[in-house]
Amino acid sequence: MAAAEPGARPMLASRGMWLPLAVLALAGVVALGMSLAVGSASVTPEALWAVLRGEGDALSRTLVLELRLPRALSAFAVGGLLAVAGALMQVLLRNPLADPYVLGLSGGAAVGALAAMLAGLGGAVISGSAFAGAFLSTLLVFGLAHGTGSWTPSRLLLTGVVVAAGWGAVITLMLALSPSDRLPSMLYWLMGDLSYSRSPWPPLTLLLGICLLLIPLGRSLNVMARGPLQAAALGVNVRPLEWTIYVVASVLTASAVTTAGSIGFVGLVVPHMLRLVLGNDQRLILPACALAGGTLLVLADTFARTMIAPEQLPVGVITALLGVPTFLYLLYRSR
């Protein structure tokens, strides 16, 4: 019996990792189904099932396949991107307050994307500009917070708030100089808007690819969460891993901002809640963040569409209402 135990433990651990992922995947499917069925014009479960089978009337097919499905998949992708980015930054900084929105990455990405839009550029240029803004913001926050010493939660938080405020001032200047006929759509986009998300496959593909990339790094990230000195002592090549996290978090944030604008606190709330339930194994937390973040934003967007239907709220308003109390609670605990 004793000889069988070492071989049994990995199997039990594997089962223990797959079960929560299966539950989260099921929750995501249910959330997507709700998003397709609920709205100013409801679709019955029978009609929805008929549309998904390639049948149903023309109105239902247009409503589900051309309007709601791309938006729901985009919401899932953006939520997953932001949650994974937040989880990576929390590992790097060993700080539960780390989040792309709080630390100014979303603001930097928004400035880059808006600059490209105002210049009349589009497509890949907007995405590249958003990545440049997010990466610049990453370097500013981490470089200024580190200084000549080490990171502290208060120094990091203060630096992130200042950098985010600076990006906010730049955004205000850009809006003031923008043509008046473009202001409403730009303001709505800055608050987090999925109304014009018609191509969900690029962010979904990026989310899947990043998750597959990070799976082999799970053990190194687990060690990194204990601190760079311990990670180096245990054989982790710290500096390349840190730069990988910098670049990946910037790419994830830039893709999310390009798709849906500036949506806050998803990367703060989701990793924290999952760690309370699942522990701190990054091999489980990172794919769980992708599923739970996507599910959360799909539900938030569904609520934003239906709360005052036929009018719509920006989804960033809903996530802020969830995220601000969570942020204050974590800040209180970190004292």
What would you note in describing this structure?
The chain has a single domain, classed as ABC transporter involved in vitamin B12 uptake, BtuC. The chain is 76% helix and 0% strand. It contains 14 helices and no strands. The protein has helices at residues 5-37, 45-52, 58-93, 105-118, 124-146, 153-176, 183-190, 201-214, 218-224, 228-233, 238-260, 266-278, 282-306, 315-333. The longest helix is centred in the first third of the chain and has 36 residues, at 58-93. It is globular, with a radius of gyration of 21 Å. Residues 1-13 have low confidence and may be disordered.
* Major sheet characteristics: none
Proportion in β-strands:
under 5%
Record field, number of beta strands: 0
Distance between the termini: 48 Å
Round the mean pLDDT to the nearest integer and report it: 83
| CATH fold-level topology | ABC transporter involved in vitamin B12 uptake, BtuC
Q: H/E element string?
A: HHHHHHHHHHHHHH
Query: Helicity level, as a percent range?
Result: over 70%
CATH homologous superfamily name? ABC transporter involved in vitamin B12 uptake, BtuC
Runs in which pLDDT lies below 50 for 5 or more consecutive residues are 1-13
SS element count, helices: 14
Large-scale geometry: globular
Tally the structural domains: 1
In the CATH classification, which architecture applies? Orthogonal Bundle
Q: What is the CATH first-level class name?
A: Mainly Alpha
The SS-based structural class is mainly alpha
Radius of gyration: 21 Å
Organism: Franzmannia pantelleriensis
Pfam families: FecCD (PF01032)
Keywords: Cell membrane, Membrane, Transmembrane, Transmembrane helix, Transport
GO molecular function: transmembrane transporter activity
